[in-house]
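Why this split exists: single-chain examples teach little about how molecules sit against one another. For that reason, every record in the complexes split bundles all components of an assembly together and asks for one structure covering all of them. Below is a record exactly as it appears in the raw files.
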Amino acid sequence: AQSVTQLGSHVSVSEGALVLLRCNYSSSVPPYLFWYVQYPNQGLQLLLKYTSAATLVKGINGFEAEFKKSETSFHLTKPSAHMSDAAEYFCAVSDGGGGNKLTFGTGTQLKVEL
Amino acid sequence: GAVVSQHPSRVICKSGTSVKIECRSLDFQATTMFWYRQFPKQSLMLMATSNEGSKATYEQGVEKDKFLINHASLTLSTLTVTSAHPEDSSFYICSAPKGGAFGTGELFFGEGSRLTVL
């Protein structure tokens, strides 16, 4: 079975500060890992994904994440937060070979303050 | 623009009635769609996989007679919550893979449908 743990249901940063959203996974097979963002009243949008290629993955809107097998982590970062980054972020894992069935974390609400 | 659309976005119904939620892929064909349920401050839980032309596959613990899924066409899947009760109140989200059922998991999600059962 696969699972994802997101540490911190709420994260608050100042505009221009580093954004770090944590995600740890558990998987019995090499995982595929994803970060999705959900803006209010909108569907989830894919930020980035790891599918066993480069361990440092760059996504949209300046976000990136690094797959660290030794730490079973896939933390999401952005060097400088913008007000428009305020949203809910979900980490998800799939086994890759079983299709598109994703297991999601509980989400982290990012707040960006002036 | 959205490539997967859900309707309605919000619905309020009385206990005991049935509610239908539609999920449409707007610019691609989706032989597979996924239905998720999201409780407040909790993660999305996969309920079932909707398959065009065949029966839906339900996750363990999901009542198939309670949550009827029909994949009527290559662009439409519907979720019907039958005999709804207050505990069925939740946020229901559908998704579809644009590149087919098997791939690297890039899904396009609908905006979600918030069901409130009184």
